[in-house]
Amino acid sequence: MNIIEYADREMLVMNVANKLAGKLKSALSGNDRATLAVPGGSTPGPIFEMLSATDLDWARVDVMLTDERWVGEDDERSNARLVKEHLLTGHAAAARFIPFYRDALTPAEGAEQVAPSLAAYMPLSVALMGMGDDMHTASLFPGDPGLPAALANDAPLLCPVYPESQSTPRVTLPAHVLNGALNKHLVIFGSEKLAALKRAEKLSVKEAPISALLDDLEVYWAE
Ligand SMILES: O=C1O[C@H](COP(=O)(O)O)[C@@H](O)[C@H](O)[C@H]1O
Question: Locate the Glucosamine/galactosamine-6-phosphate isomerase domain: which residues (predicted)?
């Protein structure tokens, strides 16, 4: 992995949004469409807002999440809600969003229904990921009984997980899909996360799921 440190969060947000836009533009220059996978959580909102103001051919961009909490968009925990409010606005309103949540289905049923349709969007052109203090990324959580299945190379393109540490079950892109992205980026804020990321290099994937994704990973950090 390559860690790029920024003087402050504003600088990071501006630079990362520009970088992602550049990667999307070059993906679109050689292909009809490009796929962008983005995280949920508390970190990416400002990057989404900056990116949404970028003038690129968003009508040819497919946007999906790296993972989703199994709740409807009326719930504040919904990652789809975050993306719709902060990314799919301005120029980026023209992008196509691929939702994972299916009302009235369980996460396992929903993942089984959605997974085959995701093949049309592979490989991801650009994957932006976040990471928790516990070294989870997407919804690959340490110690989760569903983790080994989501780490398998033959995992379906969307996996249900039921992390005990979380308030909702979730679905997640598996490690092989994230690793298959043509560009892999991780954004983290704060010293604790930076220390956790460095610790992850020496830990097992079960203890630190982010460690499954470190090859060719561009990491952006600011305090
Ligand atoms: O639950 C989640 O957590 C991670 C990290 O979120 P953050 O709030 O610490 O930025 C996020 O990347 C993932 O997509 C999300 O569902």
Answer: 8-221
Q: Residue whose CA is closest, atom 9 of ligand 1?
A: 132
The CB density around residue 153, as the number of other CB atoms within 10 Å, is 8
Entry pTM: 0.98
Q: Which residues line ligand 1 (CB under 6 A)?
A: 39-43, 66-67, 79, 129-132, 137-139
pLDDT at 201: 96
User: Average of pLDDT values for 26-39?
Assistant: 98
* CATH number, domain with residue 54: 3.40.50.1360
Predicted pLDDT of residue 65: 99
Integer Cα distance of 38 and 4 in angstroms: 19
**Residue 157 CB-half CA count within 13 A:** 18
Could you identify the atom of ligand 1 that is nearest to the CA of residue 130?
12
Distance 29 CA to ligand 1 centre (A): 31
Number of domains the chain is built from = 1
